[in-house]
Amino acid sequence: MALPFHAAHYQPAPGFLKDRVILLTGAGSGIGRALARDLAAHGATVALLGRQIKKLERVYDEIVAGGGPTPALLPFDLENALAPQYDALADALQKEFGRLDGLVHNAGILGVRSPIAHFDVPTWCRVLQVNLTAEFCLTQVCLPLLEKSADASIIFTSSGVGQVGRAYWGAYAVSKFGVEGLAQVLAHEYQGNERLRINVIDPGATRTDMRALAYPGEDPKTLKTPAEITAAYLYLLGPDSRGVSGERVHAQAP
Ligand SMILES: NC(=O)c1ccc[n+]([C@@H]2O[C@H](COP(=O)([O-])OP(=O)(O)OC[C@H]3O[C@@H](n4cnc5c(N)ncnc54)[C@H](OP(=O)(O)O)[C@@H]3O)[C@@H](O)[C@H]2O)c1
Known about the structure:
The protein has 254 residues and is an alpha/beta fold. The protein has helices at 30-41, 53-65, 83-97, 121-146, 170-189, 209-214, 231-237; strands at 21-25, 45-50, 72-75, 102-105, 152-157, 196-202, 248-250.
């Protein structure tokens, strides 16, 4: 089923994510932080995954202060985690919640902007690991939990350079092409399964640390804030998008 309207204009009903358990990576800052607060404000229990525990604790406190369901804290390094850590993460989620209703792959790193001819090989490997391979590993261990939900949703995060190659975007662009491919393969594998949908969001230019790193000369005030672009995420995670799968959504519609 295709999108019935532009998801960026979605206006959710209050509490529409009540009783849903959603795992969100990169929840400590930028888009992830705003999304975590929004998900909780709409009733979801959010499992906050990120590298730096202090940032996750700040989001935890914000959610609790806002009266949202108590979140889970999952300090986890997507660059260095190995199979035992992924298995332990899935075990912890199984014990705590018994299922997942949502998985948002939001964490990512830019690496460096550099021509391919001079691209630093260790940086290339790090970016591909965090932005792509870790998403595959996390998806794989979470699928059994998602399959226990009556209505589950996976969101992958791409970028404008994930569909059309652009000079000097190197490993970041290639990792996002890979993410789009991973999402398409997975969506095809679950085609016809109304209980699990898989979609891609391109957030568009958003006022975060990553954007500032990529465009140091840009005035951040010209950009939407993370809190202004969460509607498409909410739509794809809630019951109104049941059956919508294999789509690519831009989070900022005109
Ligand atoms: N902002 C934009 O304009 C824009 C445009 C297109 C696409 N995107 C995509 O949107 C997503 C969010 O980006 P953002 O702009 O919000 O970036 P951000 O502010 O830099 O946040 C990135 C998040 O990823 C987490 N992360 C990085 N490395 C990690 C690791 N090894 N293990 C666990 N977590 C890790 C960070 O956690 P710590 O802080 O704990 O390290 C941080 O919370 C990314 O996938 C990005 O590619 C952004």
